[in-house]
Amino acid sequence: MFPSVIAQTAEGNTASSAIGWAIFAVLVIGFFVGVILNARRGKAEVGSEIELAANRKPYLSDDELETKKLDRTLGAGLLLLAVIGVALPLYWLAEPTRQAEAADDFARVFVNRGEEIYKVGANCAACHGPEGVGGAAQTALLNDRGEFVASVAWQAPALDTVLYRYSRDEVYETLQYGRQNSPMPAWGSLGGGPLTDQQLDNVIDYLESIQLPAEEARAALEEELATTCAPDEAGACTAPDAEFATEGEALFNMGLTTKFAGGAYSCGRCHTKGWSIDQPETSGGGALGPNLTGGSTLRQFPTAESQIEFISKGAEKGKAYGRSGQAGDGTMPGFGYNPNAVIDGSPMDTNQTMYTQDQITAVVEYERGL
Asked: Are the C-beta atoms of residues 127 and 52 closer than 8 Å to each other?
């Protein structure tokens, strides 16, 4: 995508620049030609300034003016007026395109800067994989007293769908302050990291440029689901080696053993302790996200419809949800709603969501049975 944008930008800038330089060259040449001609026709000073004053000096007679001299002078003036009258409107007509191409060029520069930070400067690719496909981060596991327990590989989620569910502001907050109780450090200066606000924005610009098309992401998810579950019409898993009983359970734990997308699609990554290090404890028992077992989900959401709506749109910062839920930081994303698609100028599409409504319904059925 970006090479074609760069080529189009370069062609547009070249055309606009050529018109501007042509106008500039004609005006400069005309100015210097006039200066040279006047200088050659000038006379050396032979008396006082009063004797040479323009209002006292006789000018050319009518007989001398009404010759080809006057025609040439008027012709030159007409030519310059034609250049101004034609070239300037042409340049003006090209100005909106030039400005749009300049904006595209700015975007290209920002994306390139973000890519450099992602791959080299901050080396995000070491954990999240090249092109944000997901990976693993080697980290030390500590107990409640801060004592070393073991060295583990922590699943780092894919980032090529991160803007499907998180807004740019939410991604910025995570980059700025990191993610507690995980290997994700604070990268922003406000959180004690090495990157400026501009650099964080550029990283997000790069991430925005690598977001998967909706069809590609949906196809990858369906392929993974077919391998781990292959649900029938009732939602029961029928795959020969299915590790889950229902479609909802398979979606809730998407990537647990296969490392699909680094767990980016999984609810268990946040709601099951030990999920990210391949040592899952009680499914939905709570970790970064709240406990969903023992009737907690039913008490929070009296109806399945209210829970489906919440999971679809996610938590809004500072707004309550369910019976007594309070979203203080907006970390619960929406799995059926893209918060970036509604922003003017955003390249994101409303179809770029993590799950379909049917899949969210399957997840809700599983959670309400925990």
From this structure: no
Whether the predicted pLDDT of 46 surpasses 80 = no
pTM value is 0.74
User: What pLDDT, on the 0 to 100 scale, is given for residue 15?
Assistant: 67
Element (H, E) at 307: helix 304-313
List, in order, residues 6 or more apart from 86 with CB less than 8 Å away. none
Please tell me the distance from the alpha carbon of residue 324 to that of residue 343, in angstroms, as a whole number: 30
Count helices and strands (H / E) in the chain.
14, 4
Enumerate long-range contacts of 330-335, CB under 8 Å, 24 or more apart: 330/170, 330/173, 331/170, 331/288, 332/289, 333/165, 333/166, 333/170, 334/165, 335/165, 335/311, 335/360, 335/363
The one-character DSSP state at 121 is I
Q: How many CA atoms lie within 13 Å of 180's alpha carbon, on the beta-carbon side?
A: 6
Q: Are 182 and 174 in contact (CB under 8 A)?
A: no
User: Structure tokens of 79?
Assistant: 């030519």
244-284 pLDDT, tens digit each: 999 999 999 999 999 999 999 999 999 999 999 999 999 99
